[in-house]
Write a structure and sequence with these properties.
This protein is mostly beta strands. The protein has one domain: Porin (Beta Barrel), CATH 2.40.160.100. It has 2 helices and 23 strands. About 35% of the residues are buried. It is globular and about 75 Å long. The protein has an 18-stranded antiparallel barrel. A two-stranded antiparallel sheet has the order 17-18. It has a two-stranded antiparallel ribbon with strand order 21-22. About 5% of the residues lie in helices and about 50% in strands.
Length: about 475
């Protein structure tokens, strides 16, 4: 009945809002995209490895005992995107968007592997396919989008992904209201095991400042899921509420975010297991003062961490914490399943994801996209100072430094330091310094290179069975050569 109701509502929305002006317009066919080439050279810096829950975001290969621990890695990557838009005036358009990925010299020719020697690989992925239209009879400017589309709300903080959905935007000056519904997972057709996402986003422009707020609800009748396949073992309901502001106060540019998550995960097979309660928060503030050819900035973020005496590594009901008791609470900040916010985050080159290489590296970066995860910054806090200069129009140089701390209790967010058989609660993850150079070759062609190093603190050390071991100072040199068209 629930599915029938949703499908019926979807159909009625399509019919109700589909009245448009039928004036014949000439088809405008557009193509856009980019081709990039990325270089990677690092030590003890890697994207996350898949695991059962919110922890273990650091790739096991670069931990003590791992095959890549304290070893250098070097390789090249490439990505291309090709977007086609078929536009009939202001009333309707259709978009088909492809993506291709590959590492130079890929060992196989499967997904994300067009770098295979001899080429001819099946590496083309469908990123988006959707229809946009503007209902003519609604008294306020309205746009609707249906199909496989980007689902992005503060993507470097909360949700950045693609999915099947229906989204609407009503413009009631100066307010924009955006209700939406997405189908994140469709399980067995005759079983209520789907995942639906409902939400509302609104913002308003006040002078030089845009203020917005949103609420999302993920009704996960099957949880967790690998490759977005619902599990029959657990279910979950999670909420995210956020407010933000972007704009300018006098000469200072600023961005601010506050987000709260709340919900629970239930054991459907063993109902006697206590459900796990989730509640976490993150706050971020960025200030930048531009002056002639210079810019000076300061930024801070605080994301709550879990208590490892109450939270297991998976955060699932019936699983044991470090003290052997059943997991009951997760107070770490967590992001929605399938969100690539950890890769979007891009606030450093070594510890967090690196924007130069599209978020492909970072000690705290995670590819735990099928489950609730720490978003790459849950359980941490940092302060950051930076300065940039454009000595000539085609070159920008940036220098930045960060102190990164740990907010997890009775243990560490990433490290695993032990004394006397008890996990230690350390506070310093490390100090990081980065330098970035951006060079505009032509309007369409750009080259960016960055280098960074982290001095690791005690919260980035691990018990290897005999002693506590810290990695050698992690560092990275990475670059991107990109052509946009």
């Amino acid at each position: 009945m629930k599915k029938f109701t949703v499908i019926s509502l979807f159909g009625l929305l399509i019919i109700a809002f589909s009245a448009v002006s039928f004036a014949q317009e000439k088809l405008d066919f557009r193509a856009s995209g980019f081709i990039d080439e990325v270089t990677e050279y690092w030590r003890n810096v890697s994207g996350g490895n898949s695991s059962a829950g919110i922890y273990d975001t650091m790739n096991s290969a670069i931990k003590p005992g791992g095959a890549a621990f304290n070893r250098e890695a070097a390789y090249l990557e490439s990505r291309s995107r090709l977007k086609f838009d078929a536009v009939y005036g202001k009333e309707v358009s259709g978009t088909i968007f492809f993506e291709m990925d590959g590492t130079w010299g890929n060992a196989d020719g499967t997904r994300n592997s067009f770098g295979y020697w001899s080429g001819d690989r099946a590496a083309v992925e469908v990123k988006n396919i959707y229809i946009d239209w503007s209902p003519a009879f609604i008294p306020v400017p309205t746009t609707m989008r249906v199909g496989l589309q980007g689902f992005n709300f503060r993507p470097y903080m909360l949700i950045g992904t693609d999915g099947m959905g229906l989204s609407t935007a009503f413009k009631i000056d100066p307010v924009t209201i955006n209700p939406f519904w997405y189908k994140a997972a469709e399980g067995t057709n005759y079983v209520s095991d789907d995942t639906d996402v409902y939400g509302l986003h609104a913002n308003v422009k006040i002078s030089t400042i845009t203020v917005g707020g949103y609420g999302l609800m993920y009704n996960m009748r099957g949880y967790p899921y690998d490759a977005m396949t619902p599990s029959a073992s657990y279910s979950a309901k999670m909420w995210w509420f956020g407010v933000y502001a972007d704009g300018k106060l006098g000469p200072v540019n600023f961005n601010a975010d506050v987000i709260y998550d709340d919900g629970n995960v239930d054991d459907m097979k063993v109902p006697t297991n206590e459900k796990v309660k989730y509640s976490g928060a993150v706050g971020r503030l960025k200030l930048e003062f531009p002056w002639e050819k210079f810019a000076f900035g300061a930024q801070g973020l605080y994301a709550t961490g879990a208590d490892k005496e109450k939270t297991s590594s998976s955060g699932l009901p019936g699983t044991a914490t470090s003290t052997g008791v059943a997991s009951s609470k997760v107070k770490s900040w967590v992001g929605p399943p399938a969100s690539e916010s950890a890769a979007w985050f891009g606030e450093s080159l070594v510890f967090y994801s690196c924007w130069i290489n599209r978020g492909n590296t970072g000690i705290s970066n995670t590819d735990n996209y099928g489950r609730l995860h720490n978003g790459g910054f849950g359980g941490t806090w940092f302060t950051k100072l930076y300065a940039s200069v454009m000595p000539v129009d085609y070159m920008k140089l940036t220098l930045q430094g960060l102190y990164i701390g740990d907010t997890t209790k009775h243990g560490d967010t990433i490290g695993l330091r032990q004394e006397g058989g008890v996990y230690k609660d350390e506070k310093t993850i490390g100090w990081e310094g980065d330098v970035i150079g951006e060079f505009t070759i032509t309007k369409q062609l750009k080259y960016t290179i960055g280098a960074g190093m982290l001095a690791p603190g005690k919260a980035l050390s691990f018990w290897d069975g005999a002693s506590n071991t810290k990695p050698k100072a992690p560092w990275i040199v990475t670059s991107m050569f990109v052509y946009n068209f």
